[in-house]
Write the structure tokens for this entry.
Amino acid sequence: MSHVAPRRLYYGIFGVLIVLTAVTVAVAEVDLGPLNAIVALVIAVTKAVLVILFFMHVWYGTRLTKIVVTAGVFWLGILIVLTMGDYLTRGWLP
């Protein structure tokens, strides 16, 4: 049994994505120092979560679907930690 979401939900999510894209462009014009990357990543992660939850139908999916998506995000986190561990320790040896 599949869930059918109303069109206004998709239009609303699309509108939020457009607004967040405009916010990303606006924030890029402001010098926030080291916070520029953090703010841009927060906005990008928010947009990615909206796309995953609603356009990929994870919000209304089965428990198995949610577990698979969570496992994928967890695996991505592991890969990022391992990559940063390598990158940040490259200057230790001459």
